[in-house]
Write a structure and sequence with these properties.
single chain; 11 strands; TIM Barrel
Length: 386
């Protein structure tokens, strides 16, 4: 919720969208393909940092963007997502919020400390594998100092930008000694390198000569420090789920982030929910605490602008009124489902999203379909924005 340049939106929504949305960290992602040119996943980058300069804070900001951004691109689609990490971020609770089966964590090298630290860091890497994450390493892991890690390698990247042709071929040959590792010819920058990688049977290919990185014009809704403090207070009090429902209905930035996270995680496929209460109950206390920690890292100190005061005072009343109108129109529908629909549609309306876009990005499938079918009726009930 930060005043900044507006996203792509209908003209009538620009003033409102100015208040509530902010650019995500400058994101790009690059396809990773197999030898048949099929995309199997993407590596995602925070373009404001070099590979060696990202930190726990930048990793948290990128994770928040992956989970909570306003699409145009579904960063968590059906393929794999390769994420760069630091050793600090590998211990972060934010990893509990990512769908482990889709995530490949790129493990940094230890440099000169490898001989003394590789064994000591093995338990943490084993724990990540046990949680379902795949691990990727660069070709330095082939050094004997990293022998304690060899049986943990899922993906092994051979960096063609720093190796001669002869050395790259040798690395591919050595890499095949690591049983079960998928070999990625990385940073392929010329057709000659691409041909060399294919001739030497690299399993996967990545680089400018394969497919260039694409910027992702994602936007996020940043919670304020007051939002996160309120969330922390409810969680620390160990109040029941009803208290969290009441908080979400008063704090639209928190509600938006929760709905987007659940949607990005495809939570509905594992734990169906059709109300805000059942959504909150689908998360464990540990996951909610991890979410609070993630939001704390990206929370913004926002001055109490009149527009924000208006939103936080009026949003609960407008969403309740919209739900009441819907209940009159569809009296047999569950009240909790109508309240979730109304809150989501009001959020989308404030952000310049159409009813269909809101249904697709904020609601579980069982609620999204009827909303799309009745889009014109919902649109007629939405309030005019100030």
């Amino acid at each position: 919720m930060q005043q900044t340049s507006a996203p792509s939106a209908t003209p009538s929504s620009l003033a409102t969208a100015l208040v509530f949305t902010s650019p995500a960290p400058p994101i790009a992602w690059q396809p990773i393909k197999d030898a048949d040119d099929t995309v199997i996943g993407h590596e995602i980058f925070n373009r404001s940092r070099t590979a060696s300069a990202h930190t726990l804070e930048s990793d948290l900001a990128l994770t928040h963007a992956v989970l909570s951004h306003i699409e145009p691109a579904p960063l968590l689609g059906d393929g794999l997502l390769f994420l760069n990490t630091t050793f600090e971020s590998l211990h972060g609770s934010h990893l509990d919020l990512l769908p482990a089966h889709q995530i490949v964590l790129e493990i940094p090298s230890l440099g000169h400390a490898a001989s003394s630290e590789a064994m000591a860091r093995r338990p943490a890497l084993e724990a990540l594998r046990a949680r379902g994450f795949a691990l990727a390493f660069n070709h330095s892991v082939l050094d004997s100092a990293y022998a304690p890690w060899h049986d943990l390698v899922n993906y092994l990247k051979i960096d063609f930008s720093v190796l001669s042709a002869e050395r790259a071929v040798l690395m591919l040959q050595w890499a095949r000694r690591i049983s079960g590792a998928t070999l990625i010819a990385d940073k392929i920058e010329s057709t000659a390198q691409l041909q060399l990688a294919k001739e030497n049977k690299a399993h996967l290919l990545q680089g400018y000569a394969v497919s260039r990185p694409e910027p992702v014009p994602a936007r996020v809704v940043l919670p304020s420090t007051a939002d996160v403090a309120a969330l922390a207070a409810v969680l620390s009090s160990q109040a029941d789920a009803g208290a969290l429902v009441e908080l979400m209905q008063r704090r639209p930035a928190l509600l938006f982030n929760l709905l987007r996270m659940a949607h990005s995680q495809a939570l509905d496929a594992r734990t169906p929910y059709q109300s805000l209460l059942t959504l909150i109950q689908a998360y464990s206390a540990e996951q909610l605490k991890a979410w609070e920690t993630l939001l704390q890292a990206v929370a913004t100190k926002i001055p109490q602008l009149p527009q924000i005061q208006y939103c936080e005072k009026v949003f609960p009343h407008q969403s309740a009124e919209l739900a009441a109108k819907a209940q009159m129109r569809w009296p047999d529908a569950p009240a909790g489902s109508l309240q979730l629909m109304a809150s989501a549609l009001l959020l989308g309306h404030m952000l310049g999203m159409t009813v269909a876009q809101t249904a697709d990005q904020l609601l579980p499938g069982a609620l999204a379909q009827p909303v799309r079918l009745l889009a014109s009726e919902w649109q007629a009930m939405l309030p005019a924005l100030a």
